[in-house]
Amino acid sequence: MLRYGLTKARTMGPIAEAVSGAGGSLTRVFGRAGIPLTLLDTPDRLILLRDQVRLVEAAMREIGDPSLPARLSTGFGIAGLGPIGVQVRTAGTLGEALARVEAVTPILLQTATWTGLRRRGAQAFYGYGIVERIESGRQANEILALGYLLSTVRHFLGSAWRPNYAVVTGATLAGRTDIERLLGVEIALGSEAGLVLSPDRLGAPNPDRHNPSDSDMLETEPIGDDLAACVAHLVELGLDEARPTIDGIACRLGLSRRTLQRRLGDAGTRYADIQQRVMARRAKALLAGKTLPVGRIALELGYADAAHFTRAFLEWTGVTPSQWRRDVHSSRPARAAVSAAGG
């Protein structure tokens, strides 16, 4: 089955900082990647993996720096991996850490990718690959991943550790000298990306094992990577700019309108149902605040006026937007009073 990769939007921040620091245009970079700038304010939202790949490539082109992925990943290290970094820092040995990363990366951080350990003859291969069919920008994404793979291993073996060599895919590698200097490795070109190291290194103990706190483990919600989940996330992102259409969503996924409708039908849902759920959720979130008038919320959701939005909301919930807002705000004092009384 064709899979659609999703990843956390937190990776947008460092890319934006690098572009701004080099005097580039964020509007131009995000526009080329086809994603809204509002993602910078919502780092925990999900985006398509292919959008992240396009953003890195657009940023490299904007500032003329093919070594940007290497600079990003080495600059943030394990901390940039979020919940995956917690798994690494709490593992007892390097081998245990790599096994944890393989198990939880596609669940918590980035779907439609593989990160894990294989044997290559007498050597161990700690690799990374994109399962989804993405060609443009694949090598840049692999270089970004190499920095994180190196950070994982160097947590156990020291910052001066060097693998036998590293591998990325492709026929050529622009900026090779700078990339090798930043990563501290020799890079070869091959059929899959990763690090080659001696298997006896896998038993290395954790020199600074971390005891996780409850706050470390808060971010454990799995990322759904089924088609319906991808469509819902794309609709959610589309609402930041204008109401998305099924044709626009299909194009983002590399499908025709008819193919998208058929695959959603096979999954037991429809585009209209997904869009309605997302819009109702966004409408309620906006109505829960007291600042935006109903007319402005209607425009935010792509409606021509408040009347059209009111009819739609009434169909979704059985009440008008104004009534829903009144009910929400009138219930808050009651809940607060119960809480203050210890109820």
From TrEMBL:
Keywords: DNA-binding, Transcription, Transcription regulation. Gene3D superfamilies: Homeodomain-like. The keyword Transcription applies. Transmembrane segments: none annotated. InterPro entries: AraC-type_N, Homeodomain-like_sf, HTH_AraC, Tscrpt_reg_AraC-type_HTH. Residues 229-327 form the HTH araC/xylS-type domain. PANTHER family: HTH-TYPE TRANSCRIPTIONAL REGULATOR GADX. This is AraC family transcriptional regulator ligand-binding domain-containing protein. It comes from Methylobacterium adhaesivum. The lineage of its organism: Bacteria, Pseudomonadati, Pseudomonadota, Alphaproteobacteria, Hyphomicrobiales.
